[in-house]
Fold this protein.
Amino acid sequence: MRLSPPAAIVLALLSASPGASRAQDAATAVPSATEAAPRYLIERIDLEGLERTRPSEVRRRLLVRPGELLDEQRVLLSRLRLLQLGWFSRVESRVERGSVRGQVVLVFQFVERNTLVISDLFLGSTPAQRLYGGLGLTEQNFLGRGLGLSGAAVYGGAPADFPGTPERFSLRASLYDSDLAIGGLPTLVAGLTAIWLQGDEFACADPGCDAFAAHLGQAPRLRYGRAGGEATLGIRPGPFDRLLGGLRLERVDGSFVPGAASAAQIGPAPYLHMGGSALVAFTGSYERDTRDDAFFPVGGSRFSAQVTFSSPAIGSDYDYGRYLLQAEKDLSLPRGHGLRLLGAAGAVQGDAPFFERFYAADWAYFSVGPALGRALELNFSTDSRYDALLLMGGGEYALPLWRGDGFFQRGYLALGLRALYSSARPGAGRTAQSSTPFSGDVALRLDTPVGSFNLSAAYTLDNFL
């Protein structure tokens, strides 16, 4: 069984605010602003309740300034943007009388939350890896300066029945600044990510490696390692938009181990240049996130478009393009229930390494067969089929269970259904990652001071299918 953040596509996945109010409730944030907004100037902006966060970091993210007309909508959007940072459990605002007639003081009142949270928690078991686990930590407001600092690790040790083979692990670290101010330049977005992993991928003629079920150490496999990172820099066209460009550099090492397999027992190995190779790629992405709450949204949407381009012309040993669209729409239903609609479409062209292609089990709630969703891009199952085409659509119905001040601050029950199509190449038909394109889930989602967690029946079931 794995405990992990909710399976929304992407990006992160922590609750932005345990006590975050919904967009329709937030309209009460400025009680007198409806009538006052067209007529009053903001004399100053006061911030109350800040202890660990620097006031300058908050002011930089506000969409209102002293000397401007009071605008209720911009005050509301400022609150939403601050809640999305994950620094605060509550953000309220009010208007007070200014020192002279026609002017007002705009006050924002904050309740800070713990910003060091568990972002990933993995625990699983497969025939190829009797036990593996991992942990990820994220500091969302490092040193009170608005920096995001995160690290995650997954460890499985030597694969089952593989005596003397290298241990399997994955390490990832990142530093991120969502509002980088440099002189008079527009607000920038910048980040650095590093990755180091070592893994094995099976290369059997069938996904379950049935011929070697009793002695997987004799099965053919691809042994590989990756080390490198990516630097990104971008701008914010709007308060909830990001436009990013990046440069990715990786050293990749691969070797094929035939084991005791005959030619008939060896299937196509996941694609990778044998020996040492270099992966150099330019990346570009656009993201827009207007959700009113990252944990239990009932309004807004999220959209992202990502493009990756790698070519020998820029020093890479791989020549490919990768394209991925992801979308989420959140709707409010009667009695406080919510509906989340999800979709994704992706394609890979050229000789992309296998880890740049799509592993269908990552996108389904569960997979009938040996495939199991990866942990930090590390595959602990015997199924090593990676695809060039991906289509996914689905939805989740959310029933709120409680909201309180205890350790489990919020909880809801999620009922999900997804339909998935993937193919190794155009016209090749659906691959056998799962015997059915549909998967469902019943999950308990928990929001706590140390992170948001997902107790998933589908993932538990996936370990036994």
